[in-house]
Amino acid sequence: MQQNKPKLLFVTYSLAVGGTERVLVNLLDKIKDDYEIEIAILINKTDMLGSVPKGIKVTPLFDDTQINAITMVKIWSYSRNPKWIQKLYQEKLQGDYDVEIAFSDWGGCPSFVAFSPNERAKKVAWLHFDAKVFDFTVYGLIPFERTMQLFDQIVGVSNTAEESARELFPSLSEKLSTIHNLMRVEDIVMKAKNEPNPFQETTDTLNILAVGRMYPQKGFERLIQAHRKLIDQGYRYHLHFVGEGIEEKPLKLAVKTAGLDAHTTFWGVQKNPYKFMHNADLFVLSSRYEGLPTVCIEAFLCGTPIVSTEVAGIYEIFKKYNVGYITENSTDGVYTGLKYALDHPEEWEMWKQTVQAYAWHNDVILDEIHLLFHH
Questions:
Q1: Per the CB 3.0–4.6 Å rule, which of 110, 196, 219, 290 could disulfide with 102?
Q2: Total structural domains within the chain
Q3: Which among 125, 82, 92 is positioned nearest to 106, based on CA atoms?
């Protein structure tokens, strides 16, 4: 390895399967040859370790392998104690990094970079959520604005993420900018098309897909409420879920209780979600909040139109493409959006034709990232 490569430390919550983790892996894949990179994870949950490019060291800061109340309290306790963080840093990490990046923005993660004893490093933080919807102080249990003032630059993944942080935290204004997420476009397209259709048993009906971690943020319970209402009204389609999480059992119970088993399938975590996206007729995002819903970009790259709640970054993803429908961010909005799509099949065909031309320009984003990491 060349000795003159800048050394980067990424600090993130875990390598569990999730949107932020996929964004990190995409970023690492594009920059791996230009930097010497290490990842520090707070929780030793490494489902996505196999996707991390070879040669990148992954260091767990804690031995805990599950994200639960006990581990979260432990991390929150550390995040409010700079001396504990500095001791942990000196025990676990090399400490001679040129740039240290807090890639996760919740659960106290920024504190582990903000209070790093490495004074020579440039400190960068990522914001993946809309601060007007996602209360960083509550979910991180840290004095958010005061902690973020210790960073040199703060990156919002969408214009909305940047502007909401600027409005709520005026003291951070000069540090804020927007850099969209990098996408593994070629890899997504290849994986989407090179495996069999997983919907063989339901090809005689419309297949609607939702993908994501089963947490309250994703609003899957209101998607199921809308699903029940539509099936009761005589609409016929099949709803598929890919993902897992703390709400998986309650969601499955809600489906069973509503008598929706024949119209719903839970696939769990999938190594290749793109074959599901490519073969679905419609992708649905029911999230309460996002920063930039990368999963929607992935669906577009797989050639599938979407119905999405109005979340941060969604208009930036659509750009000028007429590739789906944006609906009000509420339970009624999820129902209305799906009903609109089901009632207007002619628009589905138009969306599907338009989405074939969808593009995501990594080159511009990559230039912005290299400039950011210039020390």
A1: 110
A2: 2
A3: 125
Domain extent at residue 142: 7-182+361-372
Q: Nearest-5° angle of CA 74, CA 79, CA 81? A: 100
Q: Which two tokens stand for residue 359?
A: 């593009």
pLDDT digits (tens, 9 = 90+) for 40-92: 999 998 888 999 999 999 999 999 888 778 888 888 889 889 999 999 999 99
Pinpoint the alpha helices (H) of 8-81.
19-31, 69-79
If you average pLDDT over every residue of the chain, what do you get?
92
Tokens 């740039």 appear where?
A: 99
Note the pLDDT tens digit of each residue in 363-372: 999 999 999 9
pTM recorded for the entire structure: 0.86
Nearest to 178 by CA among 148, 157, 153: 157
Q: By C-alpha distance, which of 255, 257, 274 is closest to 265?
A: 255
Distance of CA 321 to the CA centre of its chain: 22
Q: How many residues does the chain have?
A: 375
195 belongs to a structural domain: yes
